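Summary of Year 1 activities. Much of the first year was spent building the evaluation harness for sequence design. The harness presents a backbone, in tokenized form, and records the residue chosen at every position. We chose the following record to illustrate the format because it has been used consistently in internal testing since the harness was completed.
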């Protein structure tokens, strides 16, 4: 077996830390290789990992380093999921991939299969089982370990395309509980028809919303009945309006999102 480095100096630096290797220029020749020992030597020498002169065979303890960069989603704002190989996990390895969740379900599945094909235990057993161990940019949504890829894809696409993804996430979380079989795409389309904005409180919405002003004409009431307008219990008014007509959802880091009441 030949381990091919980028330079003769890199090969020499690694050869000094391994037993049973022969150096010829930038190539190390060995009958067998302990992957963990090789990886440690490469890291200590601070050099690039070598290429092999022929495909890795089953006698090796591990495959070449997992080429995450080929498919891993590194965009900080894109909704993504971290999918792990359960066979590797059960054998003490942390092997997984951050996957762009805005892809179509079949493309997400293809990335998962690619990740599984690189599992460090793939030579010894079938690696077909996987689970979602983490996720990012889904806001207040909770994803299960075995969430439907179709559901994840539709949700991720809706959030990624939204101008106010936090508000949309709050809306879908609120509205999906009002229907038996929620349709993510439909709820996303309905968002603008029900969203009334971000406010400090329900009272703030009642006092400052153009929609409420148009309905009740508080400004005109204050002009005509200045004395009585100063004695309105606005907290009570807000409470009545949010019992029937409007709903609020807590926003992060402060305030609330207000939606017109939804019945599905």
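For this record, the design step produced the sequence shown next.
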């Amino acid at each position: 077996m030949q381990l091919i480095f980028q330079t003769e100096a890199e090969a020499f630096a690694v050869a000094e830390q391994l037993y049973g290797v022969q150096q010829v220029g930038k190539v190390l020749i060995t009958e067998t290789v302990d992957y963990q020992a090789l990886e440690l030597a490469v890291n200590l020498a601070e050099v690039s990992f070598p290429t092999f002169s022929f495909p890795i065979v089953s006698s090796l303890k591990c495959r070449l380093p997992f080429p995450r960069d080929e498919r891993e989603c590194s965009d900080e704002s894109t909704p993504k999921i971290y999918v792990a190989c359960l066979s590797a996990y059960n054998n003490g390895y942390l092997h997984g991939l951050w996957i762009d969740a805005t892809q179509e379900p079949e493309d997400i599945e293809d990335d998962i299969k690619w990740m599984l094909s690189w599992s460090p235990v793939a030579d010894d057993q079938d690696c077909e089982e996987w689970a979602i161990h983490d996720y990012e940019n889904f806001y207040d949504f909770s994803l299960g370990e075995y969430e439907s890829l179709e559901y994840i894809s539709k949700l991720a696409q809706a959030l990624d395309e939204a101008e106010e993804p936090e508000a949309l996430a709050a809306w879908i979380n609120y509205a999906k509980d009002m229907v038996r079989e929620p349709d993510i795409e439909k709820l996303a389309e309905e968002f603008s028809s029900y969203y009334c904005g971000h406010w400090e409180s329900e009272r703030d919405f009642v006092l400052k919303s153009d929609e409420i002003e148009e309905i009740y004409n508080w400004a005109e009431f204050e002009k005509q009945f200045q004395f009585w307008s100063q004695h309105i219990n606005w907290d009570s008014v807000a409470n009545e309006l949010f019992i029937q007509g409007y709903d609020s959802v807590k926003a992060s880091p402060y305030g609330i999102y207000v939606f017109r009441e939804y019945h599905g």
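The chain has three domains: 2-52, 68-154, 163-260. Quantitative recovery figures across the full test set are reported in Table 2.
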